Amino acid sequence: MQRLFISVIIISLLSFCSVTPAKNDWVSLFNGTSLDGWKVGTNANTFSVENGTIVVNGNVAHLFYDGPVQQHSFKNFEFKADVLTMSGSNSGIYFHTQYQESGWPQKGYEAQVNNSHTDWRRTGSLYAIEDVKEVYVKDGEWFTEHIIVNGQSITIKINDKTVVEYTEPENVQRPEGMKGRLLSAGTFALQGHDPKSKVLYKNIMVKPLP
């Protein structure tokens, strides 16, 4: 009985350490009640959980997925989140990134979330790489942002409409300040941009691809 009990504990710990979704399955990264599995450094109070959503409102900060799904490292994947922006708000979804205590993430790409902020790059932009000027969704209304990374290709969809299709060139060279804006592997992060911006996220899901 004691051996059986120890075995159950070991299996449970291994399951907690790494969760690999079944092929073609979507898996949730947010439990709807807490920020368990997520990590933030400075200005942590920018993020809170209310009514099943992650509320982003405060000073510059980034909330990184740090949970057990694939040991928070993704290369090829589909990612979806339902998003609601308030008027004048700015945020973003980083991918292929890694945890930083403070500052703007230096590694990975950002899919923009912004329908009416003074920054002209609108929701769906692959920020500063392939930008979108058109506004496809409204503040105060839920929409779905869908990011697909497969090999060297990045696709961003807003409510099932493709707004960006980008292929990263081989041996691409980025300018200073953007050296890490490359495909590799990494986690996801939600951006807190400024105290005047308020953005809500829910139904945060990922489907790893081969």
What's the helix and strand layout?
Blueprint: H1 2-17, E1 27-28, E2 38-40, E3 47-50, E4 53-56, E5 61-65, E6 77-85, E7 91-97, E8 109-113, E9 143-150, E10 153-158, E11 161-167, E12 187-192, E13 199-208
Antiparallel strand pairs: 1-13, 2-5, 3-4, 4-13, 5-12, 6-9, 6-13, 7-8, 7-12, 9-10, 10-11
Structure in words:
The protein is mostly beta strands and 210 residues long. The chain has a single domain (2-208), classed as Exo-inulinase, domain 1 (Jelly Rolls). The chain is 8% helix and 36% strand. The protein contains one helix and 13 strands, in the order αβββββββββββββ. Strands 1, 3, 4, 6, 9, 10, 11 and 13 form an eight-stranded antiparallel sheet that branches.
Distance between the termini: 40 Å
Helicity level:
under 10%
Counted up, domains total: 1
Q: Which term fits the overall shape?
A: globular
Please report the total strand number as a whole number.
13
| Strand coverage percent | 35-45%
Q: Could you name the ranges where pLDDT drops below 50 across 5 or more consecutive residues?
A: 4-16
CATH secondary-structure class: Mainly Beta
Instruction: Could you tell me the CATH topology label.
Output: Jelly Rolls
Q: What is the helix tally?
A: 1
Rg: 18 Å
What structural class do helix, strand and pairing data support? mainly beta
Query: Which sequence of SSEs, written as H and E, runs from N to C?
Result: HEEEEEEEEEEEEE
Architecture per CATH nomenclature, i.e. the level-2 architecture: Sandwich
Q: Mean of the pLDDT scores?
A: 92
CATH homologous superfamily - what is it? Exo-inulinase, domain 1
Characterize the biggest β-sheet: 8 strands, antiparallel
